[in-house]
């Protein structure tokens, strides 16, 4: 179990995460992640990656997000709010298409993201 992280530190991580995406700086986004990170999203199979909806490791995440960025030239996240717990945060944002998304991010003791899950509204 991760040690407690300060709520302000986790909230700052959420803001940094959004800023890095809005800069379209994939390497900057990936610096926030542990090498052994795991990401789950219903978009992963749709993009031709693992049918389970999960990619494992920073290299697989880089491949997935590189492809996604190439398809979304106007990508932009508008931060709505950041929710925190002792070892995770949820970034609630709206994308450039007006869709609201919650991104669950669990962090390790070093404050790096080890697990992520993109959560989309049904319908």
TrEMBL record:
Pfam families: SnoaL_2. SUPFAM superfamilies: NTF2-like. Residues 15-107 form the SnoaL-like domain. This is Nuclear transport factor 2 family protein. InterPro entries: NTF2-like_dom_sf, SnoaL-like.
